[in-house]
Write a structure and sequence with these properties.
This protein has helices at 5-13, 20-25, 30-40, 59-66, 93-111, 116-126, and strands spanning 17-19, 43-46, 49-51, 80-81, 87-88. It has 164 residues and is mainly α. The strands form 2 sheets. Strands 1-3-2 form a 3-stranded antiparallel sheet. The longest helix has 19 residues, at 93-111.
């Protein structure tokens, strides 16, 4: 076998993108692989992920190959990592947009110290009854930082003072 033949085949078998773990699993040492990376001018596209110059390196695909628990649906997947290690995904652009809007609403509510459930409940019950299509300025009162939000939407911080 010629000098780079095994490594070239590995790159070709993985559509021009290879992970260090795949190389090591094939019995190729890391120093030998890193010499190959320099010689073939592979680009490091993520930690432990290398791509040839002609490889298509889509960011969602890179997330997919690095996160085995993620769900990937070609170019229309949406990945949102959450603290609970759950993943939100969508298999259509409209679904991805809806997920992004919902995630933004939740995080904006949290950032403004709102009760997320009560805030979303308020939005979903009040906005449909408003005249927001003809008067978009009406939406101002529904923003998470608005002083016009009902008290039920706000988190109540009942901190107990420590007395000696």
């Amino acid at each position: 076998m010629k000098r780079y033949e095994q490594r070239d085949k590995l790159i070709a078998d993985h559509d021009g993108i290879v992970q260090t773990s795949q190389v090591v699993a094939e019995g190729i040492s890391k120093p030998v692989f890193y010499d190959y990376v320099k010689a073939k001018k592979l680009e490091q596209v993520a930690r432990g992920v290398y791509a040839s110059a002609d490889a298509w390196t889509d960011s969602l695909y890179l997330i997919h190959i690095r996160s085995k628990q993620a769900i990937f649906s070609h170019e229309t997947a949406l990945f949102l990592g959450m603290r609970t290690c759950a993943w939100l995904f969508a298999d259509s652009p409209k679904g991805a947009t809806a997920n992004a809007v919902l995630y933004t609403l939740v995080e904006s509510a949290r950032a403004n110290e709102l009760n997320v459930f009560e805030y979303l409940n308020y939005l979903l019950t009040e906005i449909p009854n408003s005249d927001y299509l003809q008067q978009p300025e009406v939406l101002e009162k529904y923003l998470p930082w608005s002083n016009e939000l009902p008290e039920a939407c706000r988190l109540n911080h009942n901190y107990k003072k420590c007395l000696k």
